[in-house]
Amino acid sequence: MTASSAIGRGLSGIVAVVPVIPVIVVALLSGGCSENGAKAPGATPATAAPPAAADPGAHSVVGKAPAAVNGIVSVIVLEPQTPREFQPPAERPLMDQVTQTFVPAILFVRTGQPTDFKNSDDVLHNVRVREDATKSGTFNVAIPTGQIYTHTFERDGFYDVGCDIHPGMAAQVIATSSPYAILADAAGNFSFENVEPGAYRVTIYSGLDTIEKTIEVAGAVTTVGE
Fold it and tell me: Alpha helices of the chain — where are they, by DSSP H?
């Protein structure tokens, strides 16, 4: 397929982006080009930026999730059983496009907070985002070189990211209302620092399986078993 024909097909239904001022990058994982669009690319796991906590005494949550299968690692989210307000992230999350690769390949974002999508390549890209659970389109925009498009995810969930112009590019956004979201390492180990005390539901997404547990964070270290 020629570049012109690829662009012709890829830009159907795509809107252009108006230039905005670049912001600080939050790089959670370096990787992201996947030919099969797998849900969680197998690379060195990223971790969500730890939430700000005024309590220097630090409560930690550590645990063991299922080990990675075919390079796909587990995603762990801690959600408080009692609704509470958390401080917004200090820095705005950003997914970049570098050498025809989404960086990071997996990006954690806070639901209801702005997220930036940038094109640092010298070619035109688009960003097509679909909600994984419903397969419905979230947005599809063309992003010229050096430009940024900002979007706010209004619902918790997994969102698949692709580029119609370069079909080999794939990534994922994980939106959560909780600041406690992380990827396990290949062996399934994970650790949260500076967790506020209280009761939490622990949700582990491992491939097609979802595991839920409840814990009470009270002491210095709370352990979540496999």
Answer: 3-10
